[in-house]
TrEMBL record:
This is RNA-binding protein. It holds the Pfam family YlmH_1st. The lineage of its organism: Bacteria, Bacillati, Bacillota, Bacilli, Lactobacillales. One of its GO terms (molecular function) is RNA binding. Keywords: RNA-binding. The keyword RNA-binding applies.
Amino acid sequence: MVKELKNLAQHVTKEDQLFLEKAWEWIQRVEDQYVPVLSDFLNPHQVSLVENLASHRELKLFDSADVWPSEQSRLLLAPSYYELDSTDFELELLAIRFQSQFGKLTHPQVLGSLLHQTGLDRRVFGDILIGENQVQVFVERPYVSLITQEVRKIGRLGVTISISAMEELLQLEEEVQTKTIFLDSLRLDRLVASAFQLGRSKAAQLVKANKIKVNYQERKEVSYPIKAGDMLSIRGKGRIYVGESTGLSKSGRIKVELKILARK
């Protein structure tokens, strides 16, 4: 294991260490065989890890999010002489259409149906965008036929699935609530409880049930320390973007600014 990998692995979780080992294999393949390597869909945290690992290597790194804005994206690692064509990312945008007068679809419904009805791994699916009468999903191109053949119903709604042009990508406006909270300590359970007006025992249950991620990683410790810049995703609730601590209240509690994106 080379110095770059050892240094980076010292400061990350065990989960990240396993991912970094895989990313290092990608880099070695590019450098040893002079061939491009395409990742599955990665979250921004994973993209950052690969970027750090590859920063001093003789290769090019391309991110599909730089071509089609998205949260989850595919990375293409390639030799230094490589010239990118956007089709090299091998992804498609699928449109899932349904009759909105009969009901709505939610993110968990769509993802659950895609996984269970196709048997595919979560990593082959990118962002899921929920519109008024259609849902759009980024997917890896080799699995398009399987998805369109197997998925005919989501929840109680019949659906039709077809490839959509990237120019038709939904532009969704997120409604973000700004909120100021006061905490006696920056623990995970207490911040979540205050942000969503939950009892602390309920917030602790969410943590212990693996329903909360901090910066895209599951955290099972109720006392896990939260800091400015962290992003929390709470299954069924939404997301919290943690701002700076802006002082203390008269009683000595920490004042924290939050931006909350509640799940609809």
